[in-house]
Design a protein that fits this description.
By secondary structure, this protein is an alpha/beta fold. The protein contains 8 helices and 14 strands. Strands 1-2-4-3-7-8-13-14 form an 8-stranded mixed β-sheet, sandwiched between helices. A two-stranded antiparallel ribbon has the order 5-6. A two-stranded antiparallel sheet has the order 9-12. β13, α7 and β14 form a beta-alpha-beta unit. α5 crosses α6 (197-207). The longest helix has 19 residues, at 168-186. The chain is globular. 47% of the residues are buried.
Length: 357
């Protein structure tokens, strides 16, 4: 399709690139005979600044639903992406593709997949100002172009999207295992997560708390105990994930309802949100890890990221909430790393990383 061709400037930072896979196991898919395939492996791209690493800890990006790690390389209109800017600052960077997605090969035995239609992307991410699905959407000004099908920038973006596993819990189990394998291989690191990738970040930190030194959660999947895009029952049974986290005191596992005792609250913006009943259980493995939750002014997350922050604080986590508008950065939706002021945002996030590490 000709509209996907966008003239790209040579704006990427030079780097030494390599890749590898972590995790994975063989599964016999044959009926009555051995026909093994590997599943659950995770592709990881490694980028090293050509002038050498100047920062003490590497950064690991974890992308969101329907996306791949290409989100962080450059923008669909050819501008420098977050990874390149961070390479210029001397960071070593790892960029995985979520298991069963992109270059982390999917096999039908992993279960069915879902694909977000272009219309959903327009309404929620790239042209949300046109559709007014939440009050803050009227403030969205930073997407390059119209954000609609037929616009070359939108088409280039949407061409990069991929199917995701429909079963969020199964994906989280797979990603927890692969993430632990990655951290065991590379050692201590800082996680930068986005959207659905936020759930994986919490699980990686829970599995390897000694190796996760900080988490930057850019509009993590939320709010607690709810799903705003995929309207499914029993969403995030463990508050911020669909699968078990380590709580203190420990939770009693159930087959359906949340194992946490919860209660609903009414927020000033009219939304109902869910928290633990007091005394709240503490996130035993995550509470000592510094966390930054960051929210754009025009995103749907502007209406509920504060509930995720409240949940984390109630569970004992050291979390700060960075609202871009309060720092003079305006007009951003959910795909901030692709928007026109993306480098202004990553510069602000990097200042927090440098501060806590």
């Amino acid at each position: 399709m000709s509209s996907t061709h966008v003239q790209c400037a040579l704006s990427e930072a030079p780097s030494h690139r390599s890749y590898f896979h972590v995790g994975g196991h063989y599964r016999n898919t044959g009926a009555g005979e051995s026909q093994h395939v590997m599943t659950g492996q995770m592709y990881v791209e490694k980028l090293i600044p050509v002038d050498g690493v100047k920062r003490p800890l590497p950064l690991v990006f974890i992308h969101g639903a329907g996306q791949t790690g290409s989100n962080f390389l450059n923008t669909p209109d050819g501008r420098k992406g977050w990874a390149s800017w961070l390479l210029d600052q001397g960071y070593m960077i790892y960029i995985p593709d979520t298991t069963c997605r992109g270059r982390s090969s999917h096999h039908f035995s992993n279960g069915p997949t879902i694909t977000y239609p272009a219309e959903l992307a327009e309404k929620r991410w790239t042209a949300c100002r046109t559709f007014h699905l939440w009050p803050e959407a009227a403030l969205h000004t930073q997407w390059p172009g119209s954000g609609r099908m037929g616009d070359p920038v939108f088409d280039a973006y949407y061409a990069s999207t991929v199917p995701s596993l429909a079963d969020h819990a199964a994906e989280q189990v797979s990603m927890r295992t692969a993430g632990a394998c990655l951290l065991d291989r590379i050692g201590p690191a800082i996680l930068i997560t986005h959207s659905q990738g936020g759930t994986h970040g919490w699980l990686w930190a829970d599995a390897r708390p000694e190796l996760v030194k900080a988490i930057v959660a850019v509009e993590p999947a939320g709010p607690p105990f709810q799903s705003t895009v995929a309207k499914t029952s029993n969403a995030k049974r463990f508050g911020i994930t669909d699968v078990a986290l380590v709580y203190d005191p420990p939770v009693e596992m159930t087959d359906s309802e949340s194992p946490l005792q919860t209660e609903n609250h009414e927020a000033a913006n009219g939304r109902t949100y869910t928290m633990q009943q007091e005394p709240a259980r503490r996130l035993a493995n995550i509470h000592s890890i510094p966390v930054l939750v960051e929210t754009g002014e025009a995103s749907s997350h502007a209406g509920y990221d504060e509930f995720t922050v409240q949940f984390l604080r109630q569970a004992g986590v050291r979390v700060e909430h960075l609202k871009l508008a309060e720092r003079g950065i305006h007009g951003n939706g959910h795909l901030q790393f692709l928007e026109m002021n993306n480098l202004e945002i990553i510069e602000l996030l990097e200042k927090w990383i440098a501060k806590v590490t």
